[in-house]
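Supplementary notes (optional reading)

For those who missed the lab, this is the record we used. Protein: Radical SAM C-terminal extension domain-containing protein. Length: 173 residues.
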Amino acid sequence: MLIFYVIFAGIHDISDTAAEWSKWGCMVTIIMFFLFYGGIGTIAWCFMDELVPQHHRSRVQSICQFTAMSIDCVYIFVFQFIFDVIKAYSFIPMYIIPNIISFSILFFILPETKNLEIYEIVAKLKVLVDLVAHILSLVPPWTRVYRVQRDIPMPLVTSGVEYGNLREQDVSN
């Protein structure tokens, strides 16, 4: 989206006759960027807390908002100085490259949630919790079982999703 801003600003710098329509192109692309993205990344900060258990949501939301506001503060001050030096091309290192990096990480490194809805991810977690419950029922009670996989939060291992102690629940079944 911001690459179009850089293109319109470049046209404005090169040609005096295209000045009027290229100004409007710059304005429209900036408005579209903030309308659709609202910042540096393509994922809204308010959706991050949906990926964690209910009792951690307020903490995660606070951390996400703090991070977003801190990045916005830094960008406001740094962007002015960079814009004075390299003009419209300052969008490339400040916004376009971080968006490409974020997209690459999301696409290539985090494929385990690719094409999955949130309810499917939660269903996978419940299956993993049942597996850990079965493992806990096989070992003696004094044995401490650590997380089998990084996707299972420790409170689910010790207390279960909606049932009490996983070890007792599986033994009773």
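If you only remember one thing from this example: The chain has seven helices and no strands.
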